[in-house]
Amino acid sequence: MGIQTPKDHHHHPHSLRRKLLPYALYSLLFIAIFRLYFFPTPASHPPLISTGVVEAEGGSSGCEDYTDGRWVHDEMGPIYNSSACATIKDGQNCAAHGRPDSGYLYWRWIPNKCHLPRFDPTTFLHLTRHKHLAFVGDSLARNQLESLLCLLSTVSLPDLVYTNGQDNKFRKWHFASHNLTVSVYWSPFLVKGFEKSQQIPYNRLYLDSVNDVWAKDLDQMDMVVLSIGHWFLHPAVFYYGDSVLGCHSCNDNNFTEVGFYHVYGMAFNTTLKVLLNRGIHVIVTTFSPAHFEGDWDSLDACSKTKPNEKNLEGMDYEMRRQEMEQVIWASKQSKTWHLEALDVTKLSLMRPDGHPGPYMYPFPFAKGKRDRVPNDCVHWCLPGPIDTWNQIMLDIMKTWNF
């Protein structure tokens, strides 16, 4: 006699497995779809611009490449309101000047291969307690500085303790809560330079010497953020020691035209050598692209209202390349300091919607539409995409020990 099969199929284990099998398959299918959607494999390439829910917050990721990513629609928006931040330069306060759209505020940069937390002002203040952080460069250095002040002001208000020069070119703030000093130094070439005048219609740059307007205070600085670029597009004559290297668009037959890419790299080389010798921690904010389309005073000079996908090429590519090469060179010279490139060129290139445009001036169309109007397609609205620069900078600083 063989083993008898029970007649009560409701308690047969094989029968029970048959009934549960479809549910198990559905569960596995759901898990697979969930993982594929939220955690794509390395072979997948998500779009550079997308919409969706941003993942939960976490600690520092220590990203190796912040530039490989996409702009994601984010309903949370900025952490500060332009009307509540008193340090915004008038020309970048787009909402106060009547910009009618607000969609440019609701995008967040998401790296593809790591997690970038939101900016946490308390963490930043903790890391920089008893430090002096200096922004050195042109008006985009100031733009980034003012973004940082607005972000930090959500938890601690700074006192303006020093101001000098037209257009707020030299200022210093103190956060008493953490004994943090933040300053800005106008130095659009980093190296010693003289800006053009009516008598001399071109800039003069001395590429072997840094500009003393900021270098004289190096003993007071713990960390420097360097940000330059657009002033190198202007006509200039370049010197190294007693020799004239040539000029860029100076229209002078006495000088050889040499362009500006190589001398741009030389300016960084000279600057980084000085900072390396002092052991000062450095962030190099890479070139920030402009978005002029057509004439600077046309109505559609920079009228985009959403991010777009665009290849990094031409001048934007070359300016960034010069900076990156100098950072890589300098980082190999010493391990006793922190030097990082804040590589924002590509992610900023994708944000033509983030500039003041005609709203660099208050209510430009209050008296009706005009055929021509000045546009700012270089600087960034506050709040705006430039806040992402400081978000990445903080994530970089979390990996430091300084």
From TrEMBL:
Instruction: Tell me the organism.
Output: Ambrosia artemisiifolia (Common ragweed)
| GO cellular component, as recorded | Golgi apparatus; membrane
Q: Where in the cell is it found?
A: Membrane
The main place the protein resides is membrane
Query: Pfam families, from UniProt?
Result: PC-Esterase, PMR5N
Residue ranges annotated as transmembrane are 20-38
Question: Which family does the record claim for this protein?
Answer: Belongs to the PC-esterase family. TBL subfamily.
Which Gene Ontology terms cover its molecular function?
O-acetyltransferase activity
Q: What keywords would UniProt list here?
A: Membrane, Signal-anchor, Transmembrane, Transmembrane helix
Q: Which InterPro entries match?
A: TBL, TBL_C, TBL_N
| Residue span, Trichome birefringence-like N-terminal domain | 65-115
Q: Membrane topology for this entry?
A: Single-pass membrane protein
Q: Which residues form the Trichome birefringence-like C-terminal domain?
A: 116-395
- Record-given protein name: Trichome birefringence-like N-terminal domain-containing protein
